[in-house]
Amino acid sequence: MVASISSSAHIELEIQELLVSGLSLGDVVSHLLKNYSKVRLDIQELETVSNFFLAAGYHFSLLQFLTQCLSRNLTIPWAHFCEALFLTTPMLTESIKSSLIKGAEAQGQLENLTLVSHLDHFDDRLVPLRQRRSQIQRELLSKRKEEMIATLDMLQAQGMHAEEEKLIERFNLIFPNDEKLGEIKKNKLKRRALGLVQEITSDNPRWIPLAAFEVPEKETLEILTAIENSMQSYLISHPDPDLAHDFAIAQIMWENYAAALRFTDLALEDQPGFPNLIWLKLEILFNLRRFLEVLDIISGLEHEWNNNPDAVFGLMYMKANCLWELSLKQQAIDIMDSVCRARPHFRTARIILSEWQGDSE
Length: 361
Hints:
Layout: H1 7-20, H2 25-36, H3 43-56, H4 59-71, H5 78-88, H6 94-106, H7 126-157, H8 161-174, H9 180-191, H10 218-237, H11 241-253, H12 257-270, H13 275-287, H14 291-304, H15 309-325, H16 329-342, H17 347-360
Helix pairs in contact: 1-3, 3-4, 3-5, 4-5, 7-8, 8-9, 11-12, 12-13, 14-15, 15-16, 16-17
């Protein structure tokens, strides 16, 4: 399920939609200036707009925009304002630097200036504030990690698999390099088999993760649909299989796999048999839990790609995962074991095989 979208995320999606529609960076900047110059945005929304302006290189336009916000008594992101000012006017006078400090203080945003280092030499409070900010962030992250791990243990113990899966994905985003992540990912692989019957012919009902049935909230769905329609319209007037592929990747990022599949099929119409697109389609179908379709495609590719050993073992790896999800466990184990023996350095396959063998005992 796609999470509900915050007000600042709405602006991010709007910017993405404008970019994929083919507008130039300058046109997108003009659109944002026109739409938001008279709107009361909060500081998170202003940070989103400011990040885009800075990344796009429209530093002077950002200065004009934030100056207008100041004139309307809005609290602005002073670090972004300072960055744009130094980029457009490297040699700032002492009076201007003093005004930046006073302006940030007046809005209670002095600590925001610690996000940049331009004024460190001018006010000796900034470096200690930055160090304090960093220490607080480290402590908060450490506490957050402990809380998430404790919650994961609770969810796993209570068999709340869909909630556990969502929390693992969030942990992966927040702590991608944490040593605990390897163990968490292994548990995720194990979770994928929880609740499934031992054999596909069993009379017991199959357990399917709740996430497979969850539907995005109405507002989120409307935004995703609007973005997809915009992408589709652009492709109609500007056919481009590479762009269709890029749109599919974007939809995957938003967990909109059905739309991703539609764009992938569009790309395949112009580039049938293109390996990268076929792999992408297989991954999307797997995420949609359409395992029988994946197996059907693999059966045709095994002969077609038999002269490419890496591709063959990749197909075997995916086939094994599909069979495991369909509760054909011994077949899955046998195939994954073959992959591991032929590719002993394929660490992910070895981890999965170990988990499967443990579950089947």
